[in-house]
């Protein structure tokens, strides 16, 4: 599929998705959201892709927010649809992807940009990154899952302060909050993400998919995460990856997981 606003590249088990709207600081418009959906879906369906890394083009921004010009004149019903559809096709979609997704936050991650980063399975930031949810300064609240995911990641009090003040935090503060896993230089950001991704590719993609389901279930109302863990644990025993992993361990060799 040809894209206007993003670029994709595959290498050695890793698919890199780059949001490429530098003149708009990679802001998310509806076309970009739809393109990202298809890119993530394609990567997830590609049995050769073991990890996805998403980042922004240039050195200024990961994603500097949503494209406000698209929805400035929306009414209540249109606003609700905007949030519901966006969560369905991108933000919830990424969070529940069976393939691990790493956000390489290479600059401003504001509003929808931070919401996209938080939907990824974990985040690595460059030391020039700035993060925040400034929506209340526009008379609206985060609508792509920001109020929920930020609270889960940093706690209620910190989430409330960040949202209410519409403020930004730097990469080191984000690290201290647990919002990002690592902070590095701009030059080393993608190499570090690739290094982590390569470690992931050495493990069972089937088991990793089950682990994602189990971890995510602990944040869903009405679902017992322990029960999901038990089910996914048991499911592993019927996979070729389990047979290969245990055999390799007993034979004292490196496992070569088939991904089935």
Structure description:
The protein has 260 residues and is an alpha/beta fold. It folds into 2 domains: 196 residues, 2-enoyl-CoA Hydratase, Chain A, domain 1 (Alpha-Beta Complex); 46 residues. The chain is globular and about 60 Å long. 37% of the residues are buried. The model has no long low-confidence stretch (mean pLDDT 95).
Q: In sequence order, what are the helices and strands, one letter per element?
A: EEHEEHEEHEEHHEHEHHHH
Radius of gyration: 19 Å
Percentage of residues in helical conformation = 40-55%
Task: Quickly count the helices.
Answer: 10
Uncertain residue segments: none
Strand line-up across the major sheet: 1-2-3-5-7-10
Query: Which structural class do the helices and strands define?
Result: alpha/beta
Produce a short descriptive summary.
The chain is of the alpha/beta class and 260 residues long. It has 10 helices and 10 strands.
List the helices and strands and how they pair.
Blueprint: E1 6-11, E2 14-19, H1 30-45, E3 51-56, E4 61-63, H2 76-95, E5 101-105, E6 108-110, H3 112-119, E7 122-126, E8 130-132, H4 146-154, H5 156-165, E9 168-170, H6 171-177, E10 182-184, H7 186-201, H8 205-217, H9 225-236, H10 240-250
Parallel strand pairs: 2-3, 3-5, 4-6, 5-7, 6-8, 7-10
Antiparallel strand pairs: 1-2, 8-9
Primary descriptors:
260 residues, alpha/beta, 2-enoyl-CoA Hydratase, Chain A, domain 1, 2 domains, 6-stranded mixed β-sheet, 4-stranded mixed β-sheet, 10 helices, 10 strands, 17% strand, globular
């Amino acid at each position: 599929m040809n894209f206007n606003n993003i670029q994709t590249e595959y290498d050695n088990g890793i698919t890199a998705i780059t949001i490429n709207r530098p003149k708009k600081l990679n802001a998310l418009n509806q076309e970009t959201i739809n393109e990202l959906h298809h890119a993530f879906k394609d990567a997830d369906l590609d049995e050769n892709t073991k990890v996805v890394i998403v980042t922004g083009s240039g050195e200024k921004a990961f994603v500097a927010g949503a494209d406000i010009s698209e929805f400035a004149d929306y009414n209540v019903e249109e606003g609700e649809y905007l949030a519901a559809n966006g969560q369905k096709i991108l933000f919830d979609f990424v969070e529940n992807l069976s393939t691990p997704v790493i956000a390489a936050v290479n600059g401003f991650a504001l509003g929808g940009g931070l919401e996209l980063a938080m939907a990824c399975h974990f985040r690595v930031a460059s030391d020039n990154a700035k993060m925040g949810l400034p929506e209340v300064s526009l008379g609206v609240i985060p609508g792509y899952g920001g109020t929920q995911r930020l609270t889960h990641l940093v706690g209620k009090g910190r989430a409330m302060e960040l949202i209410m003040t519409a403020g930004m935090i730097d990469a080191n503060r984000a690290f201290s909050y647990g919002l990002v896993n690592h902070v590095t230089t701009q030059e080393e950001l993608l190499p570090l993400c690739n290094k982590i991704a390569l470690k992931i590719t050495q493990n069972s993609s089937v088991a990793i998919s089950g682990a994602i389901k189990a971890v995510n279930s602990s944040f869903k109302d009405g679902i017992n995460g322990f029960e999901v863990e038990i089910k996914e644990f048991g499911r592993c025993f019927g996979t070729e990856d389990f047979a290969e992993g245990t055999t390799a361990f007993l034979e004292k060799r490196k496992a070569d997981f088939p991904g089935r």
